[in-house]
Model the fold of this input.
Amino acid sequence: MSMKNAAYKKFKDISREEHISPGTALCTGCGGLLALRLAYKVLGENVVIVNAAGCFTLLSVYPYSPFSSSWMYTAMACAPAGAQGIRDALDILIKKGKLKSEENLKVVVLTGDGAANDIGLQSTSAAIYRGLDFYYFCYDNEAYSNTGFQMSSATPYGSRTATSLPGEINPQGTVQRKKDLFEIWRAHKPPYLATVSPSHPVDLSNKFEKASKFEGPKLFIALSPCPPGWSFDASNSVNIARLAVQTGIWPLKEAVYGEVKHTVIPKFKPVEEYLRTQNRYDHLFNPVKQVDVIDNIKKDVEQYWERYLDS
Amino acid sequence: MVKEMLTGNSAAAWGARLSEVDYIPAFPITPQTEIIEVISQWINDGEMNAKFTNMDSEHSMITAAGTAAATGARVFSATSSQGLLYGYEMLYNVTGWRVPLVLVNVSRGLSAPITLEPDHNDVLSARDSGFIQIHAETCQEILDTILMAYRIAEDERVLLPVLINMDGFYLSFTREPVEVPGKDEVSKFLPEYNPKHAFFKASNPMSQGVAVLGGSAYSYFKYQMHLASLNVLTVHDEVAGEFKRIFGRSYSAIEAFKIDDAEYVIIMSNSFTIKGKAAVNKFREKGLKAGLLRLRLIRPFPSNELKTLLKGKKAVAVIDQNISPGSGGILSKDVTTALYHEPDRPEVILSFIGGLGGKDISHAEFNHIVEEMEKSIETGIVPETQLLYTKNDLDQINNLLNIAGKTLEELRN
Done:
């Protein structure tokens, strides 16, 4: 994204207005909540969130809501279908004159990585295929965190979860590589698709601003450092998110109708710097260093960026 | 008024059209597909002002139906069998959202083994979901019930979705003369949906479907659904009265057929009831005081009405077109429970399972039922649940087993 034409050039350009009150039931230092809070500043007030089962379901527990706008909890697999129903209903009610057009809302799906990558992949694919005019916000904490941090298909290779514990047979912990949800979504050629990180608020804000110009699916994967799941001190969330970007592990990019562009080119700090910040990678360093596993992670990052930096 | 020859499926589509629904999310499954095909065509031809969306599964379809209704639209959809089960999770969600949508189920036996013809295990699996359930016998009744269903569902004493059942093939693809009411008449009966409890609009933010923590809140909301469902017993009769006044056709929670002086009563539901009514007529010709009750309103269960209708009868036989393996027929339990505290209750209640996967119920089987009722009165011994299965059925399965290289005899050993 060229900074020259960007709506947000520096941190102070971001609105101070808040649409999510503090004091929610989410964990201290939740990276996903910070990303959502920033996204909301661009989305504004006239929003209905359609939520899938996950950590963020606890944002709205009867009779409380931290939002200044509307909320609909659905179930784990079907938030995009829920968004379809709301969008279709608003459209037909406005068309029939039963609802004034100024009552219109932006429909925003809010799901975790488990719902996005696994149980809800079909309903997401279908919503993108239908060209549904909606936002999709996936907070990617790289596991089923709300149920105690079990492995999802967004869990990275070499990390520890409650269902991919390092042991004698698999000393690296998670054996599989993280599913490339960005590329799966991109294959549908949606108008707008981006990754974001709470460590890069200006980049995040510009992406939501840019997305707002498109009609159709506008999809976001937000890196969500998870203090209890990744096992680090809650005060480090933003630093860890920043390291994920700086090491090249979390590429910040966007795709407009399928055309990919990286919005931040990192200076490639050693991946070990990132891995050492979280106890979910502790087994790679203690009691003995698993050099082969760390090398594989390095190689994956290198191979990813070679594809883009060469072209 | 002119009657048209309509299939059960077309009658359902007309019901949705006349109700001026706003939204139809759809997913195909046999034998329901004709309903959504007809509606899709009407919308494309500009004859119906509604939004139609092809969804990716019944789970998504019921979700979209529910959230559209929660936005304030009048919503219709239809499914069948495996489809209803695929969306099962969302049935409980949409009832909890208290959205008054109408869903038609075209009954079809459940896999495995996979089959096409009807029984009621599919629709009765939703028995405890909170959906109001009305089961229809004729094509006219399907159309009429959809009109009534929106009145009932949208009544502020109710605010629950309605599931209307018709039998696949036997009714979905059978043409019967159906009176299609005019738009003006319908608008006198069914006003525009204008929700005060569930909607989304910018000027009035609302949270819906939110989580609760702890049993006090959960119990409170669940029990409200029970009380709302019980209100349907009153609301249904009010709505049916109004319907009769405008359209001249009369529906009650339980249809009573030759019941007044009956001593032996058969209880059935859905389209196979016509077979039961024919059997009752034959029994009457022979001088046996037979009668029949058709359970139309399944949820809420009209216990009091049933008690009144069966007061002082000699014997009752419930034919369940479903099976709860390890227990028996599902509706026989509801009937028995309703009668237990009635001092003048029937002497015996017998339970039969028939018509599974669309198997015919022949007159010989009705004869057997009456004989069993008479025997039970005489001996005071009530038999276990029996499967209605004739010599002819046995020959047919024997034939198939032979082709498969097995015989019943071999299998017995």
